[in-house]
Write a structure and sequence with these properties.
The complex is a heterodimer of chains A (115) and B (111).
Chain A lengths: L3 E2 L4 E5 L4 E3 L2 E2 L6 E7 L5 E7 L5 E3 L5 E5 L4 E6 L8 E8 L8 E3 L3 E6 L1
Chain B lengths: L2 E5 L2 E4 L5 E8 L5 E7 L5 E9 L2 E4 L5 E7 L2 E6 L8 E8 L5 E3 L3 E5 L1
Parallel strand pairs in B: 2-11
Antiparallel strand pairs in B: 1-3, 3-8, 4-5, 4-9, 5-6, 7-8, 9-10, 9-11
Classes of the chains: A mainly beta (115), B mainly beta (111).
């Protein structure tokens, strides 16, 4: 089974500063990768996804992520954060086209953007 | 476009009472359906998933059960709630090779 590691449980950052949220997964076989955002008392919203193709993926709200197969990583970045980006972010992996039923989530990273 | 509904939005139930949470999806056919739970300050725990009507896979042994009586309906149930069942319950759907889409969630408090 896959495992997903988000090393940082909380990331404080000042407004307009850049941020990187780290995600590593366990398997080097073909996978699909996702980042979700969750605001308090709401469901998860898809930020971006990597299915195939370019390793640099752009998503909503100015976020992007880079797939690194050799390091089994999928770090999320934003060059300049806003107060409204304060939320919890989850990295997720599915087994790709041959094991699409299950998704594995990291434990989440709480991003706290300070004025 | 696709939409996923969950109800109720919040629920307060006493220990030992039954539970029924419902999830329905609109705008897609034969989706994979999932139930997750988030305990306070914790990540997502996959409880059940279903690839078709009547097909349920259980991920964690517990006093909860799930059913899929119709293609786009997924129900989470319990005969007797425990305090440890408190949490935020999320329903999600996906299609072959794609991402998951989540419902708005149900906040369950067992007292």
């Amino acid at each position: 089974a896959q495992s997903v590691t988000q090393l940082d449980s909380q990331v404080p950052v000042f407004e307009e500063a850049p941020v990187e949220l780290r995600c590593n997964y366990s398997s080097s076989v073909s996978v699909y990768l996702f980042w979700y955002v969750q605001y308090p008392n709401q469901g998860l919203q898809l930020l971006l996804k990597y299915l195939s193709g370019s390793t640099l993926v752009k998503g909503i709200n100015g976020f992007e992520a880079e797939f690194n197969k050799s390091q089994t990583s999928f770090h999320l970045r934003k060059p300049s954060v806003h107060i409204s980006d304060t939320a919890e972010y989850f990295c997720a992996v599915s087994g790709g086209p041959y094991n699409f039923n299950k998704f594995y989530f990291g434990s989440g990273t709480k991003l706290n953007v300070k004025p | 476009s696709q939409t996923i509904h969950q109800w109720p939005a919040t629920l307060v139930q006493p220990v030992g009472s039954p539970l029924s949470l419902e999830c329905t999806v609109e705008g897609t056919s034969n989706p994979n359906l999932y139930w997750y739970r988030q305990a306070a300050g914790r990540g997502l725990q996959l409880l059940f998933y279903s690839v078709g009507i009547g097909q349920i896979s259980s991920e964690v042994p517990q006093n909860l059960s799930a059913s899929r009586p119709q293609d786009r309906q997924f129900i989470l149930s319990s005969k007797k709630l425990l305090l440890s069942d408190s949490g935020f319950y999320l329903c999600a759907w996906s299609v072959l090779g794609g991402e998951q889409y989540f419902g708005p969630g149900t906040r369950l408090t067992v007292t």
